[in-house]
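User: Predict the structure for this protein chain, please.
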Amino acid sequence: MSYIDRLNPHMADPQAANFVPLSPLSFLKRTAQVFGDHTATIYNGEKRSWRALYSRCCAFADALTKHGVDRGDVVSVLAFNTPEMVELQFSVAMAGGVLNTINTRLDPETIAGIIDHAEPVALVFDVELADVVTDALTRSSHSVAHCVVINLPGSPQSDLGSDFEAFVESGNPESEWSLPPSEWDAFGLNYTSGTGGRPKGVVIHHRGAYLMAMGTVPAWSVPMHPVYLYTVPLFHCNGWGHAWMNALVAGAVVCMRKVEAGAIFEAINRYRVTHFGGAPVVLSMLVNAPAECRKTFDHKVCVMTAGAPPPPAILDRTEQLGLDVMQVYGLTETYGHIMHCAWNSDWDELEFGDRSKIKARQGVQFTHTEEVAVVDLETGEPVASDGRSEGEIVIRSNTVMKGYHKDHNATQEAFKGGFFRSGDVAVRHPDGYIEIKDRLKDVIISGGENVSSVEVENVLYRLPGVACAAVVARPDEKWGEVPVGFIELSFDAAELDETQVIQFCRENLAGFKTPKQIVFGEIPKTSTGKVQKFMLRDGLRIPT
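Assistant: Here is the predicted structure, written as structure tokens:
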């Protein structure tokens, strides 16, 4: 006990008057009260105010409670970026539930595995994904108590569960809800690819979600009432926390169900979008769009990019479109971005190409990130800030996950040494800016989505006659990286051809996980039989 506390023992413990659990739910409540008439969501030309969105969230939370969702229960979601998905970023937590958004691009078997692991009480899904969900539930051993379907007006309805709008109407829009008893309580459960090929369940808390939104505002120079275009999938790190951020600044969220270059250009012009985020593949999509799709802008458009280090050439061409790009770095385990390429005005006069090289760096920590270091893999000591000495990025922050769901050993390993171990190899430049050079994990980042090389290799090994298989990343101008498979056949194996192998993978994997190239031949190995993946990577070239 400190000297002050010894003199004032009545001050030692926090009171209801001076300690309130941090949660992004507070942003939503305040904005509904203060800026209730401001636009919250825009979709297909229809607008909804923050007051209306808040009422709908209260009603949905009340309906969840009536259907038996208790505090700490998981609610899984498979949906696109529609207003309903934005509302779910708040309503599930208002009911005390834990939001589990699932990648809409996954295959039914993987979705079934996530459902079995997460054990959701309820499942919300978009009607367009009804067949995938039906298949996944058939494969799953877990029984979901209730399903809710986001139906499309004028399209065939699904009878697999309650209609989303009817579910909202069944709840009380003025229902009372409360902040979590502890800001450390789970807010979300997000699955990411592990090095073993199986997705890991990352548990995030209310405190981290609150601070992620707070830290994004100054780093990205977000004003009050921005117009934000949601091109980042809301199933990915809760859409980088930008729904929470927009609730904080009463922004207008333009929802985009399908991400296409023409639609992005049109939305920016029509709604005068000020901010949007996206993986480098989105930037590539814009700069390579047909001339008839491209538009120029007479207002400032700020872009946040992450997922894989964007090529400087793409950043150069993006800037020439009139987009102000800031690269950020993060992981699912850190709620998304914890580091950004903070711009120095001294660099304004540099040539396009030189500025792009700097913007390709991951940069320095956000204000909500306590410490990011690059440490020697053997000694654990910080590497020299010389732009050459490589080490692993380690992180200490209030926006680091609680841990991996049902995986104590993996959690302890990730937190070894008092930091979160990222598994990414980087250098630190003399100005303190960090730049990623490689990954310790063999996870491929394609179009902003993680692809486990082990998972793909496991599929390749299912082909008759495969003696050895390896999958590595090949640089790709559009997707950032794509998986490439290497196959070594046994001496008595029947011949396989590339088309046959790719088709087999496509039948057993999500499209973005399917190798784009198959190379046959002897795979280099160490004397102990370990595959030398660096040699495979060195032999790959960007196709012309």
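The chain has a mean pLDDT of 90.
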